[in-house]
Design a protein that fits this description.
This is NTP pyrophosphohydrolase MazG-like domain-containing protein. Pfam families: MazG. InterPro entries: MazG-like_dom (IPR004518). This protein has one domain: MazG-like (Helix Hairpins). It is 69% helix and 0% strand. It is mostly helical. The termini are far apart. The chain has six helices and no strands.
């Protein structure tokens, strides 16, 4: 999302990521293509996981789990943008639901 060590040290929220992706790539008419790209990226993530390839071990981002997770997140955010969904709000609401559906077991 930017260059330089300072940029890498900053925290990035889901809201900021969504805004960045919306500014860069917001084409609601391509929502079906975004979905197909998401499926493609999930396949590439599966391959990277199968190869157990990590950036911290290779020093190169290409073909790593790190790269493919970003690509999946990118298309998830792009689809959320098309539908006007705030992913941070969705996360909070889903966690609330999960706490009622799957209460913590005592002793865990």
């Amino acid at each position: 999302m930017g260059n330089g060590d300072q940029q890498e040290q900053q925290t990035l929220t889901l809201k900021q990521l969504q805004a960045y992706i919306k500014e860069k790539d917001y084409r609601p008419e391509l929502k079906h293509q975004y979905m197909l790209k998401l499926f493609e990226e999930i396949g590439e993530l599966a391959e990277a996981v199968r190869k157990d390839k990590l950036y911290r071990e290779t020093g190169q981002i290409k073909g790593t789990i790190d790269e493919e997770l970003y690509d999946v997140l990118y298309y998830v955010a792009a689809i959320a943008n098309v539908y006007g969904i705030d992913l941070e709000t969705s996360c909070r609401l889903k966690e609330q639901l999960n706490r009622t559906r799957y209460p913590a077991q005592s002793g865990e």
